[in-house]
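Session log. Operator J.P. requested a structure for one protein chain; no other inputs attached. Running the standard single-chain path with token output.
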Amino acid sequence: MGKNPDLNIKYLALVVLVFSIATCSDGATPNPIKVQGRYEIVFHNARVLDPETNLDAILDVGIVNDKIMAVSTEVLTGSLEIDASGLVLAPGFIDLHSHSEGYETAAYQVMDGRTTRLELESGVYPVDSWYESKQGQELMNYGASVSHTAVRRHLQDQAESRLRGTLNPNLTIISQKIPEHIYEDFIPTLQQGLMAGAIGVGSGTQYAPGITRPEMLDVNLVTAKNEMCLFTHVRYGSLIEPYSTFEALQEVISNSAISGSCAHVVHINSMAMSATSELVDIMNNARSNGIDISTEMYPWDASNDRIRTLMFDPGWENRWGVTPQDLQSKSTGERLTQEEFDALRTGIGDDRVLMHMNTEETLILALQDPQMIIASDAGTLRDRFEHPRTAGTFSRVLGHFVREKKALTLMEAIRKMTLLPAQRLQDFTPGMKTKGRVQVGADADLVVFDPNLVASGATYLDAKQYSKGYHYVMVNGIFVVKEGSLVADVYPGKPVYGYLK
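Structure written below.
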């Protein structure tokens, strides 16, 4: 890989950096870039896409250490030279919403073009020990928010332990309001997480019904004070009043307006269902009136659920806009009848289902919104019945929605998976200023793929399948996918911290 420090210094001394790259709003070839010298790795004749400059041209790209050092119309020389003719070279994909853990799942994800995965919705606590546990162990770059939900549980656990002398494992803390006598520790504990490097605050509000509205506003106030962002799973998911997604989104917008906080709403498509476009328009209107709000979606029509949960309490059909026919059994692959639903609801057996609650038309309308970010809501691949978004989200966009449906251009799709997430974070996450771009000085987090072949291998009933069409994936200048195959025994992932670290 050419990682000898002495050689690196020599290469750097030889490299004459770019005079300038012309911004190509029309996609034309940039002005010639004068470079000379030898690089560690060179990609020849790649179709280079840089979404920040709208660059779309056949160029050579030179890499030294973990940085892009040349993007050139001239032929470069390198210790390793790769013919990328016919292939697209783009920034590595940045996943803002990943709950994934472990090497095996990461392997599927780098084969999907991901080079950074961030746990921002749920977050983590304690923050410092989470980052420390990952040093030198990760295929991809990694980072997390501080978890609102975990912090409140931690404080309540401590209070319960002091009261009883031992922790009660059956305590339903998520359903409880934080007692006044420990609330004074709540904001300082969130603040400690931010100081430890967290990227904002994550709040799984729907999963912790004990979170009051004043508490939620306080969380917004702490993010505003620290010039950070709140990443939130909104309080409700329902098409009907009361307790609708509309109402939940209004809470987020209202709190942002009151506090001046940045807010990011996760997976709007799975919360708003058929009303997704309507709620995206509301966020756009709020943004035009000075509210710092954004959202994301994954490109799949179904969510994972279990029939014997609160999700399917009476009235679920109206809340979610679906019927038993929209439920697909994970064990059989068949859609359910009313009788089969009733039997699973009240009996035993495998009650895991896919709930198909978005149409393709709904997904396309949301994807086409200029500010829509693509994120996966990935889990950990324990078996083939996990959601295919864990392994195939970004390739599904490129293969299905770009190539097959022509719902997006290739540049639009790349922007939603690279530049937009980087820009969303970069004001309070310094490391994001050099990600999501193919420019001199940017991080060498890169994907090289065949646009005619790229596709998700993962399906709803067989999630443990690699995506197709990727020839190379680099993380910080190190190959994690090379010539279409995983590279063994490399762990180039680096931490991504919030600016308070």
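Operator note: Residues 51 and 415 are 5 Å apart (CA to CA).
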